[in-house]
From TrEMBL:
Chain segments annotated as coiled-coil in the UniProt record: 217-244
Domain annotation Histidine kinase: ranges: 382-600
Domain PAC: 319-371
Sequence ranges assigned to domain PAS in this UniProt record: 244-316
Organism expressing this protein natively: Ramlibacter algicola
Name of the molecule in the record: histidine kinase
Length: 744
């Protein structure tokens, strides 16, 4: 609230009062003094005139000593008001005649004094010489009480009263006038105050006069209108800005991108906190300067970044570049950098901003994709090579068999080679199928309690041909007490067989291969050692990856597909075990150690006997072979007949049923993909016929997945065999069909 003593009005009043009072006082005092002086001069003059008249009139009376006349002359002063005493003195100064009016307030001095006029207070006295013929004959004295001072004071008082009155009037008038000026100003001030404290936004000052103050109020109100309009515009702009800022912040928060903003003339670069966080830097080690990014940019990517930047700034092409940036841990990571510049009217770029997004994973995926595409191409080439490789000796073998009809030693060698090559091809295809089962998670272990020795025997059966073909010396170091474990014997011998095959394959002819088996606590340890070409240290773990090979497979004769060790590790891991490779380096040989969990040692484990060579079933076993591949069917029938079986061939599904009814086979080897009705359907129909209740139905098919096996079982098959049929595998099945238990 405004202090009333400080208001303009009170100040104006104070000024008015002070100046007016001062002026009036000065004027009154000056007037009073002037008047008093004139009055006194008049009084003196009057007094002197009176005295001179008395002197003139009384000169003769004094000269002649006529007191009476002198007294009468003095008495004329009675007519003169204010004269309180008068006297005449002779030439010696002695009192001659006196005059004192009735009130007798005056005094008459006893002796004459020197001529002159004296004024003291209200009193004035005049001493005048009385001359007669130029000679002084005496002195006249007149005393006057003039009251000029009182009169002057009275008139001053009147003046002061008038002045006071008029001052008061002026004060009132001026107050009124001032109020007509200050009231609208105060109203303006009050409105301004209320608007300032936000009490009334739309309030306006009232216009009460049409004068300059009215103009001021109008201007003030117009200014408020304009301010209101601008405030509304500003508010709308602010709201839009807030919305856009919120949207921007949300986008920035929600985005995985880091942002940068480069002020080209100022040479400063803003990096968003997310940008720095992406790389793991802080404000100190990554200041907002263009050099910061230069410092972490991979030297090999600098040229690409600069070229893209120049192309954008000069030709205004989109700025998009991928580059490596070093993070706070010193790791190079890939980023996609994009941005756009702003150009001024002269076409000079003055600002550029954009984002960075990490693309390391995509880059790695791209790299892996390229690698896998390359590996796939290589794999297909190798596969073709690997499949064709065994075909050459088989074809040559066939030629030999054709010519050497006498079944001499050449034919026998050719047959052994062909068998080995065929085994190799079968294993290859089996491995490939297993890979696909492993990668689709469909491989199942047929786990039972098994003897490790039987696994070793099966594995040796698989790999012995390769070991002896290469002329390697093979040593098997097996524990006396057999080790028992829970596992799938087929899969474990497949894994061990792969390791032994590799040892044979990657050891120059005439080398040494050893298999050492021992128990270490609750683990069975199988170690396959060779003195072959060895493995470089960097490859020791990588050789277990799919398609991984130490050397490019096409440049060597003993190539594989790079899937054997992958299978080994997958199968061993599925058994809860592990496998590692060791090698002192190229040319230093290798060792592969498999560890498998095993069962506690049995105190008196019976000595392992090698399974007796399975015998062929009794002669005269009737086998119906159903296969639309005439060659495959005939060769199979040929082999079976050579072994003493009686056979009948059918090449389609529908023909199989009447053939079976007529032939009454003990065993039906039935292909699945058949013209007419498929193998499942044939099996189902046979099973529906009570005459074939004891007939062994064996599915012979190229499809070996779990699903295929299950479907075969559902259709009524007893067994499921993938092509080509291995007679060794077939043999026990045939025996079982005759009511003989397996392994008997
Ligand atoms: P493949 O033998 O079909 O190439 P593997 O997965 O069995 O595939 O083996 C992968 C690679 O590991 C082989 O190409 C070979 O370079 C290397 N390797 C495997 N076993 C041995 C071994 N005993 N001695 C030397 N190198 C081996």
């Amino acid at each position: 609230m405004r202090n009333p003593g400080r208001s303009i009005r009170s100040k104006l009043n104070a000024i008015l009062v002070v100046t007016t009072v001062t002026a009036l006082l000065l004027a009154a005092v000056a007037l009073f003094l002037l008047d008093l002086r004139r009055e006194l001069a008049d009084t003196q003059e009057d007094l002197v005139t009176q005295a001179d008249v008395i002197a003139l009139a009384s000169a003769a009376a004094l000269a002649f000593g006529d007191r009476k006349v002198a007294q009468e002359n003095l008495a004329t002063l009675r007519a003169k008001s204010g004269v309180t005493a008068a006297a005449l003195y002779d030439e010696n100064g002695k009192l001659f005649a006196t005059f004192q009016p009735d009130d007798a307030v005056g005094e008459v001095p006893a002796r004459a004094a020197a001529p002159g006029v004296r004024v003291r207070g209200d009193w004035a006295v005049a001493w005048r010489p009385v001359l007669s013929n130029q000679e002084r004959v005496g002195t006249v004295y007149v005393q006057l009480r003039h009251e000029r001072l009182a009169q002057a004071l009275a008139s001053v008082a009147g003046l002061v009263a008038i002045m006071g009155g008029s001052l008061l009037g002026a004060l009132l008038l001026s107050n009124r006038l001032q109020r007509s000026v200050t009231r609208p100003i105060l109203a303006v001030a009050e409105v301004a105050r209320k608007i300032l404290i936000g009490e009334a936004g739309g309030l306006r000052a009232p216009k009460t006069t049409q004068d300059e103050v009215g103009d001021l109020v109008d201007a003030f109100n117009a200014m408020l209108d304009e301010l209101d309009r601008r405030a509304r515009t500003l508010e709308a702009a602010n709201a839009a800005l807030r919305l856009s800022e919120a949207r921007y912040q949300l986008a920035v928060r929600g985005s995985s991108a880091g942002l940068w903003d480069w002020d080209l003339p100022a040479g400063t670069m803003f990096y968003s906190p997310r940008f720095k966080a992406l790389l793991g830097y802080g404000d100190v080690d990554f200041p907002d300067k263009p050099e910061s990014i230069d410092r972490v940019l991979h030297p090999d990517d600098r040229a690409a970044v600069r070229t893209a930047l120049r192309a954008h700034l000069r030709e205004r092409q989109p700025y998009q570049v991928e580059c490596r940036l070093r993070d706070a841990n010193g790791r190079w990571r890939w980023f996609f950098v994009a941005g756009a510049a702003l150009w001024d009217a002269q076409g000079r770029p003055y600002r550029m901003a954009g984002s960075v997004i990490e693309v390391t994973e995509r880059k790695q995926a791209e790299h892996e994709l390229q690698e896998s595409s390359r590996a796939k191409d290589e794999f297909i080439a190798t596969l073709a090579h690997e499949l064709r490789n065994p075909l050459a000796p088989i074809r040559t073998g066939l030629d030999i068999l054709k010519r050497d009809t006498g079944n001499g030693p050449v034919s026998q060698r050719a047959r052994a080679t062909m068998e080995r090559q065929l085994q190799h091809m079968i294993r290859l295809v089996d491995d490939l199928l297993d890979i696909s089962r492993i990668s689709s998670g469909k491989i199942r272990l047929d786990v039972s309690r098994i003897h490790l020795r039987s696994v070793v025997d099966s594995a040796l059966e698989i790999s012995r041909p390769a070991l002896s073909a290469a002329g390697h010396a093979f040593e098997a170091d097996l524990p006396d007490d057999d080790i028992e474990l829970m596992g799938d014997p087929t899969r474990l011998s497949q894994a061990l067989g792969n390791l032994l095959n590799n040892a044979a394959k990657y050891t120059p002819p005439g080398g040494r291969v050893a298999l050492r088996v021992r128990r270490e606590g609750d683990q069975a340890v199988l170690r396959v050692e060779d003195n072959g070409e060895g493995i470089p240290p960097g490859m020791l773990d990588r050789v277990f990856s799919l398609f991984a090979q130490v050397r490019s497979t096409l440049d060597r004769a003993q190539g594989g597909l790079g899937i054997g060790l992958y299978l080994v590790r997958s199968l061993v891991t599925m058994h809860g075990g592990s496998v590692v490779a060791e090698s002192a380096g190229p040319g230093q040989g290798s060792a592969f150690t498999v560890r498998l969990p095993c069962l506690p040692a049995q105190p008196a484990a019976p000595k392992h006997d090698a399974p007796a060579k399975a015998e062929w079933p009794d002669e005269g076993l009737k086998v119906l072979v159903v296969d639309d591949n005439v060659d495959a069917a005939e060769t199979l029938a040929l082999v079976l007949e050579m072994e003493g079986c009686r056979t009948r061939l059918v090449h389609d599904g529908l023909g199989a049923i009447p053939a079976a009814q007529e032939f009454a086979p003990d065993v039906v080897l039935l292909d699945i993909g058949l013209p007419g009705i498929n193998g499942y359907e044939v099996a189902a129909r046979l099973r529906a016929d009570a005459r074939f209740a004891d007939t062994v139905l064996v599915a012979i098919t190229g499809w070996g997945s779990e699903q295929d096996r299950r479907r075969a079982g559902e259709a009524g098959f007893d067994h499921h065999q993938t092509k080509p049929v291995d007679l060794e595998v077939l043999r026990p099945l045939l025996r079982r069909g005759r009511g003989v238990p397996p392994g008997a």
